[in-house]
């Protein structure tokens, strides 16, 4: 899975690739940091698939409620106020 994610990331330099798709491949490979990086790119690009981050494949990303994850989804307004007040 990691090789597929790296391949899609490389392809994105030459052609349009949905940032969400690359983030999904990194999620499948278990690479939390790269997944978050590409989810942030998806946010910047206003990727319409971003709300699907609640799918089970992303559970490991939002477990622990990292500051990076919390701030990303407060910006997207997917997290109701007070849910992650500690983040």
Description of the molecule:
There is one protein chain. With 87 residues, the chain is mainly α. The longest helix has 13 residues. It has one domain. The mean pLDDT is 75. Helix content is 55%, strand content 0%.
Q: Layout of helices and strands, plus pairs?
A:
Elements: H1 2-11, H2 19-29, H3 32-44, H4 59-62, H5 67-76
- The end-to-end distance, rounded to whole angstroms, is 30 Å
Strands, total number: 0
Overall mean confidence score, pLDDT: 75
Main structural class: mainly alpha
Helix percent reads 55-70%
Oligomer: single chain
Judging from the principal axes of the Cα atoms, what is the shape? globular
Main sheet makeup: none
Gist of the model:
The chain has helices at residues 2-11, 19-29, 32-44, 59-62, 67-76.
Provide the descriptors you would attach to this structure in a database record.
single chain; 87 residues; mainly alpha; 55% helix; globular
């Amino acid at each position: 899975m990691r090789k597929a994610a790296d391949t899609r990331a490389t392809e994105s330099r030459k052609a349009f690739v949905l940032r969400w798709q690359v983030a999904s491949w990194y999620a499948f490979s278990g690479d939390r940091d790269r997944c978050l990086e590409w989810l942030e790119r998806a946010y910047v690009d206003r990727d319409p698939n971003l709300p699907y981050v609640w799918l089970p494949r992303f559970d490991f990303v939002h477990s622990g409620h990292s500051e990076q994850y919390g701030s990303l989804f407060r910006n997207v307004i997917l997290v109701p106020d007070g849910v992650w007040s500690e983040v």
